[in-house]
């Protein structure tokens, strides 16, 4: 089976420090405390009325380090929300930074060239390889580019909802 790639962008933010786990655990809808280093999950940040404020993937990158992955241009609002909820916790909120996000379809493992972070893709059966530049990732994966609409059709068929598209805040 050939590997296909959809090149896009995403924003990264980092929450680091001794209280990072507890800080995020109290803010998001998934159990980030249960994540082992290298694991990730999808999570929402809700307001006091239960309205979605941010849709993200949370990756534990160290014992007290988390990388938050959000859709392109959603990094600034996410960091502003995190700053608003940060009071006395021993955490540093860093970012956001815009990076390339290459969604690989048909790849068994992600390439390492140019890759800073690998996550299961939002669409089942895909891998998201994240790095500063997409070209080395696509080349290392031996992937051919496909139309983003093909990936969108897979997402809809799989029933994976997106905030702002299928879900409202």
Task: Characterise this structure.
The protein has 169 residues and is an alpha+beta fold. Helices cover 21% and strands 38% of the residues. The chain contains four helices and eight strands, in the order βαβββαβββαβα. It has helices at 20-25, 75-85, 134-141, 148-158, and strands at 4-16, 40-46, 52-62, 65-71, 92-105, 117-120, 126-131, 144-145. Strands 1, 2, 3, 4, 5, 6, 7 and 8 form an eight-stranded mixed beta sheet that branches. A hairpin with a 5-residue loop joins strand 2 (40-46) and strand 3 (52-62). It is globular and about 50 Å long. The mean pLDDT is 89.
Strand content: 35-45%
What is the H-and-E element order?
A: EHEEEHEEEHEH
The biggest sheet amounts to: 8 strands, mixed
Low-confidence stretches: none
Radius of gyration, Cα only, in angstroms?
16 Å
How widely separated are the two ends? Answer: 38 Å
Helix content: 10-25%
Shape: globular
Instruction: Kindly state the number of beta strands.
Output: 8
């Amino acid at each position: 089976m050939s590997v296909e790639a959809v090149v896009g962008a995403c924003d990264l933010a980092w929450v680091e420090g001794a209280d990072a786990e507890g800080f995020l655990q109290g803010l998001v809808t998934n159990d980030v405390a249960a994540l082992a280093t290298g694991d990730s999950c999808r999570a929402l940040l809700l307001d006091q009325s239960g309205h979605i404020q941010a849709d993200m993937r949370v990756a534990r990158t160290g014992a007290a380090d988390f990388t938050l992955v959000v859709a392109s241009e959603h990094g600034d609002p996410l960091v502003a929300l995190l700053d608003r909820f940060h009071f006395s916790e021993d955490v540093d909120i860093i970012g956001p930074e815009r990076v390339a996000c290459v969604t690989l379809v048909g790849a068994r493992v992600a390439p390492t060239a140019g890759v800073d972070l690998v996550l299961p893709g939002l669409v089942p059966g895909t891998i998201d390889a994240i790095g500063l530049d997409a070209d080395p990732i696509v080349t290392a994966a031996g992937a051919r580019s496909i139309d983003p609409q093909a990936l969108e059709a897979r997402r809809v068929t799989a029933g994976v909802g997106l905030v702002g598209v299928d879900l409202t805040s």
